[in-house]
Amino acid sequence: MVLAATMDRPALLGGSRAVTLDGTSANRWPIVTDEDVAAVTEVLRSGELSLHKITGALENDYRALLGVKHVLACCNGTSAIFAALHALGLKPGDEVLAPSATYWASVMPILWCGAVPVFCESEPEQLGLDPADAEGKITPRTKAMVVVHLWGMPSRMDSLLGLAQKHKLKVFEDASHAHGAKWRGKPVGTLGDAAVFSLQTNKLAPAGEGGILVTNSDAIHEHALCLGHFERILNLPTPARRFAGTGFGMKHRMAPLSAAVARTQLKHMSERNARRNANIEYLSKRLEKLGLRTFLAPPDIERVYFLFIIQNDEAATRLPTDALVKALQAEGCDVVRPKYPLLHQQPVFTEGVFVDIARLHDVPRASLPTYRKEDLPRTTAANAQLIQLPAFPSADRALLDQYATAFEKVLGAAPAITEAWRNGTHRA
Ligand SMILES: Cc1ncc(COP(=O)(O)O)c(C=O)c1O
After folding, report:
1. Can you give the pLDDT at residue 21?
2. How far apart are CA 399 and CA 11, in angstroms?
3. How many angstroms does the Cα of residue 312 sit away from the middle of ligand 1?
4. Which residues line ligand 1 at a C-beta cut-off of 6 Å?
């Protein structure tokens, strides 16, 4: 193929770069202003760095935002997930349906409850648990499912909630990526028995470190509070007050300095989500025209974007994903392969270490799940075609247009790039 002008020639094949604008400030996250600094300073100056009332104020903010009965501010999302799963009443040997395509913290706390994950395929459009695959994996030991609204896209809740109801399973939502997302008008985090939002720095309403546990269940709230918030047990109006001297052995409360950041960030979340969404949707529509899958939300869903992940259908673009990433990087695009490894392929599972972590030595091995790298072929294949772009929280159209041009150039020259990629004759 002859590529005439160097402007149109992909940078990987000697042309000039499509992206010349500096994306540093367009992609800076979190957005920290004087308001965050003032909020933190006020708490710091108070000298009350463990039990400041700002943590309760943050819980009230989330209660109002989500319309839920109980909110517990925890020191991070992982501790909040452990507390929620423990409070669901998981017992040794119980099975929990869970995605493999997620961050480890969605799943690993299951083991600390003595239960085990049963990994399911992710469905290709909304990226959460595949309801059909999950149903096929239900056994008499299955007690719960972990639903992850991955990258900010709500999962297929109608099917998953139906499945849970039919088989009497508890539903835990990991909404760590999905602050502000809605399913049929209802906020995610309010759809199951309990949910958690991570407030780690990259998240949509960050605190540095923090986790928000939400539930409408008095029993779940009480258990999670006894587990990790001993100082609040005496405030309970129930016989659980008798545990005030010990709690249940963990300490999960959020640092008030984090709560100060979290409150300020939350105040601006919806306006910042809207800007990020508008930017990503604008670029997504241009990328869809090139045959890329961008996971735009279906009509009954308001998604958000913790990360902007797209999928390169190699059969459609005729460009291997590694070559596409390399060619886009050569154009000046800040793109990478997403970092989460598939969990079912990790040594903790494939080498059987999970038995030690979950202390399941007394449970016959034959009644525990087996984990093999070659399991979940559909999720594995889909995962190999994902590409992560910047989330463009503060980008303007000029930068987005340059990214669109980079994709157009690269995909327009797919055969030449593939050939150079295979022969090793592209630019280093
Ligand atoms: C899907 C998911 N769940 C849970 C967590 C854990 O949250 P944290 O980092 O606040 O412990 C994270 C990320 O950090 C996450 O991405």
Report:
1. 98
2. 17
3. 26
4. 76-78, 102-103, 105-106, 148, 174, 176-177, 198, 200, 211
Question: Rounded to whole angstroms, how far apart are CA atoms 117 and 121?
Answer: 13
Q: According to the model, what pLDDT value does residue 3 have?
A: 46
In contact, 323 and 421? CB cutoff 8 Å: yes
Q: Which residue has the tokens 């105040």?
A: 267
pTM for the predicted model, two decimal places:
0.97
What digits encode the pLDDT tens for the residues 334-372?
999 998 999 999 999 999 999 999 999 999 999 999 999
Taking residue 155's Cβ as centre, other Cβ atoms within 10 Å add up to 29
| pLDDT tens profile 309-339 | 999 999 999 999 999 999 999 999 999 999 8
Contact between 401 and 144 (Cβ < 8 Å)? no
Host H or E run for residue 416:
helix 414-423
Question: What per-residue confidence (pLDDT) applies to 1?
Answer: 42
In CATH, the number for domain 34-267 is: 3.40.640.10
- Using the structure block, give the residue that is written with the tokens 């989460």: 340
Domain residue extents for the chain? 34-267
d(CA 233, ligand 1 centre) in Å: 26
Task: Report the alpha-carbon distance of residue 74 to residue 212 in Å, rounded.
Answer: 6
End-to-end CA gap in the chain: 20
What are the two backbone dihedrals, phi and then psi, of residue 389, each rounded to the nearest 5 degrees?
-105, 170
CA 409 to ligand 1 centroid distance, Å: 36
C-alpha 374 chain-centroid distance: 24
For residue 256, give Cα distances in angstroms to 43, 207, 259.
Answer: 7, 10, 5
- Percentage of the residues of the chain whose pLDDT score is greater than 90: 95
